[in-house]
Write a structure and sequence with these properties.
Strand content: under 5%
Number of domains: 1
Number of strands: 0
Order of helices and strands: HHHHHH
Helix content: over 70%
Structural class: mainly alpha
Length: 145
Amino acid sequence: MLILWLKAFHVFAVVTWFAGLFYLPRLLVYHAEASEPVVRERLKVMERRLLMMTNIGGALTILLGIATLGAWQYAVPDYFRQAHWLHVKLVLVLLLITYHGVLTRLVRSFARDTAHWTPRRLRLFNELPALLLIGIVVLAVVKPF
């Protein structure tokens, strides 16, 4: 029963995390295209606040994911060794954490007005979490190997 509760709250945290990972790059596109100082300042505030929520969602996702893994390992001692799909999923999660780190640096560089990314590059960057999400969900639900 504990595992189900952990999984449920893990999913809530994942949704929160991805909301930020999907929307923050879009705000940065608007920021890169904005020419009026008042708009740029407003976007900085929005980016900072959304990054805070994204950080919380990411941290909770990781903590609840580790707790869920621990509960599974306790219930089924060989679980981690046998769940090969999980190894691939964790690699994708590490890529997602890396993406989050790059996004954090981008938000900070936009806040300092030192960002040099073009709107087109930001739009392409915005597609990466969707691709990772597809892989993670397929692995977690289908468990193909």
